[in-house]
Amino acid sequence: MILSKSGFVFALLVCVVMLFSCSSKKKKPAVSFYYWRIEFSLKENEKATLKENQVSAIYLRCFDIVFDEKLKRAVPHAIVRFRDADLIVQIVPVIFIKNQVFLELDSNSIDTLAEHTFSLLEQINQSQHISAKELQIDCDWTQKSSNNYFHFLRLLKQKLGAKSNSFAAAKLSATIRLHQIKYAGLQGIPPVDKGVLMFYNMGKINGSPVNSVYDRKLSQSYLSALNKYPLPLDFALPVFAWGIHLRKGQVIELLNKMDSRDFADKNDFVSSTKHRFAVKQSVFKNGFYFKEGDEIKVEEIESQDFESMADDLTEHYKRPVERLIFYDLDSINISRYEKNIFKKVTADF
Amino acid sequence: MRKIFSKKLLLISSLVATVSAGVLWACGGGDWDEYGVSAYTPEAFVDSAYKPFFYSDMFYYEMGHDVQHIYRFNDEVVADWKAYLKRPAADTELRFFLLKASLGMVDSVIANTAKTLPGNVGNMYLVKEKSSQKIAAFLRFLHYAKANERYAAPFRYYWDYQEETAPLKLDEDQLKNRAAMEVEMKKAKDNFIAQRYFFQVVRAWFFDGEFAQCISFYETNKSRFPENALAARALSYVAGAYYKQKNYAQANYLFSRVYDAGLKFKTIAHYSFHPQEEADWQQTLALSKSVDEKVTLWHLLGIYFDEEKAIREIYTLQPKSDKLDLLLARLINKQEIESNMESTEYGSGNYSPAKDSLSKNALRLVSEIAEAGNTSKPYMWQLSAGYLHFINQDFNKAADYYQKAQQTMPANELPQAQLRLLVLMNHIAGMNTMDKKNEDFLLKDLVWLQSVSDGSIPHFRFANAYDWIKRKMAGLYSRQKDALRSELFVHTDSFYTNPVRAANLKSFLLNKNLTPFEQYCKTIYPISARGIAEFQYIVLAYEDKIDAALKQADSTTDGGELPGNPFNGNIQDCHDCDHAAPQKVKYTKIGLLQKMQEMKDNIAAGKDVYNNSLLLGNAFYNMTHYGNARFFYECAVIGSYHYAPDVIPNSFRKMLLNQRNAKNYYKKALTVAVTVEQKAKMTYLILKCDRNEWYNQQYENGSLNGWSEAGFPPLNFASFMPFKNTKYYEDVIAECGFFRSYADSRNK
Question: CA torsion angle for A315, A318, A322, A326 (degrees, to 10)?
Fold first, then answer.
């Protein structure tokens, strides 16, 4: 029954969206960034990037919500701290919620969770005098958790509607993963004002030559349903790089914020291809220990990748795109690209 | 003590995927040990102080994550004050003041007379005697320490932004409190009291984020105090301060000093130890002031990252160090997991450890050290070298090392058991046949292994090894075409597909003149002669040889009462309904067979053939997996609780799904049916059997994974249409959805 009902709603929404899209005029998307560190403090080149690319908003991860196995309840985790009070652009609070939260909690606890979440967001906004126009929720929900998650979203939506808070009349958005687009009938459509398509992390993290962050072929297999998706979408694009640390062909850890530049020392590493390195002698680097014989597969996004992303997304999504949100604003990430690349990318949309 | 800095601060991010190394070792379901498949018990040789670092799927062995941070030193704190006060201050009073009382309570005790305080507090010895010099000093200290707690171990209400992100700077009161404690420390004549203020000031500087001050205060004053646990606690804050300053070289060096400060400091220091770059690691090594200190550094590196390299370094520095033991045990535990002892080519008898995955460097290193014999536990190295050579399939070399190990192995139970187990595995691995000579040779050890299977030797990791031994022996017997002995070591369902083998095995188990080896085999075999006898008559029953089955059966093999009436034949199969329905007569397995035989006799005598055939058809139907009497076939050999055909052992599946017997008797009833109602009923019940046969066929084709996917069976429904005007037809239409759909489609 769930299937057929949501199928009906889906069809209805498609009609509405199609009508809407025909009447709107296409304009270039605004540039935004995610900010995902625990401490909010902008470095000089990060500030410069905001300026050079006329960045209109920072999507700031305010906290995670995780399920505490001991307490058997949902708790906030890694709440943002502000070192830099100079909020030079509009802030959009984002919270990441582990799907487990919605799998473990019973439906009665969802109301309390929404209360707590909203109250904590309000405290953060008030402490920094943020008046938010949007709230974004990031959760890789599944069919099983969708009832709880969607209920949670509806509750938040109600709260955003109230006048006397720091979110007065703010929009609610949610991240959408590629599989949630492809299997929208099964996974449901979150009850939010708009979605953000996470156009990355599409493959398996392993030692194969395929880039798990972005692979054009793989991404194309998901895109046919894009235009039919009933929510208006923004696009989140990757600018991060990482290494995958392999031992005997098995993944042992992810090397966050490490890229090819970190493995340039020929005494310690030998490269077989542009993105593949073998450890010549055991060595510490960036807090990781690389053992002789280990391998590192670096996954990074190159400037030309943005062009193919734009080609594919515009081909399959004919509606206007309000925003591109790059993940994530970080001096190491942006140092790999020319200064105004982010603004340039918008021209392709 | 609160953790100095938290690795939890690494975000659990969705936008960045996370990967866990633990996944690589995790097993898919089942009740696995945290150490994986192992026959090598670290507890046999390694000091229990290192236990958290034994190789494990979890972060810390037998512990998971260390969550003792705020409780870890409670007992020591109470004991220290008790010894200091040297008065009959009960533990409960000290615990109350030190661990429970609030700052307000302490201040109230200081300010008020005992009489004005609530009775339970006012009557305390520590309150009544509060003006005595030591107790006054105690309460005074408590006042400052409790105020400091707010920062050192704050209570957290998760959803409060202020509390959760705790102010990065101490407030005015806190600054005053810290300054006052510094004054108290300086003026305290009593070193016991002074050291406690010293500790509080160090942690106050730390939590204030004034790391340079934290370090310099510690350095200026440390020499005044003894090197006790409190000093080590202060030192761990200083190490943390260096870490915060990104002086990783110094931080990691100091954490290694904390590691050596005692049992309770091991996990704290290990968790915090974290070299960043090769250069700072080299500086850390250069900071060490003695061989002992350097050994600890390599030891920590070994636990975290690289046992082999650490062993090599420590062995060169200090071959007698006990810090080698842990690393060796970890190295072996990792190697044995890679050797994948679990997988076995059953039946080939060729099973051997997977030598390809063995690290040849590890083999060389451990052998070299074992040969040199200059460690503090040469027997551990010899035993370990033997085990690695075993994995490398060099059983002669393994035997040599085991022999050497034997000469100096401690007489304690666990090390001896460990050696005995590995020697036994090596013997068996080297055997190509299983003859009387080998059996007799192994018997004593096998009996011993069986005797310790009750877990009587704590920690002893014998279970995986014992399984391996049994599989290996079963494989050898199988290769020699000795199906019976192979079955005794590893029970397989397919053994029972041959009735002669089953009968032979039963005779074997009933034989009173077994040799000691055979007696052992009997002990380990999971099924009794009685269990086999029960299986035998069950099989005969499915062959419609009820009289033979009854001859085979007796009261000792009757398995209890059937849950439903096995003679029911309903339009729909509903086991729960049949089991819940009231029954005048309850049948046991044998009771059912007796009744069936009676009916067969009646048919033979031409008595009421229709009804007797119908009821026999029903009984046979219910005895299949589709019927209400699955209980009939549940026994030690076939197993029980088969909720779907795919969980019935392959060897018995056909027998239990087969509709032949039921259909035969329904057909017989149909041929003698007189009334049209009787004919309708038989025609329908035969259709039901056809439906089941179609399911069976779908299942066999592999096109069916569960009944819900079965769809609509293409049955000869037309055969039932001529009975349209019967009452039975109406009942079927009311109850059977399949048929109703068919009839509807015909009526359109």
Answer: -20
